Amino acid sequence: MVKEINKHGDKYFQCESCSFFYKTKELAKRCEEWCTKHHSCNIEITKHAVEI
Question: How confident is the model at residue 45 (pLDDT cuts 50, 70, 90)?
Fold first, then answer.
C-alpha cells in the first residue's frame, strides 16, 4: 500500500517496497506493483523518483 508523506507543505507518495518517493500516487502505485511482482526496480518508473 502506497504511503502518503507531507513535507514542507508538499505531498509525496512512497513505494513501501523500495522506499522511493514520487510526486504522484499513480507512479508510487506502479512502482510498488512492479517491485512486489518482480522483486526488482523498473528504471522507467524509478527515473521519476524524487529526493525529499
Answer: very high
Q: How confident is the model at residue 30 (pLDDT cuts 50, 70, 90)?
A: very high
User: All 3 cell numbers of residue 5?
Assistant: 508523506
| pLDDT, position 11 | 97
What is 7-46 written as a DSSP string? ETTEEEEE-TTT--EESSHHHHHHHHHHHHHHSS--HHHH
For the record, the C-alpha cell of 51 comes out as: 529526493
Any idea where the domains of the chain sit in the sequence?
Answer: 3-46
What CA–CA distance (Å, rounded) separates 24 from 48?
Answer: 10
Cell representation of residue 31: 512502482
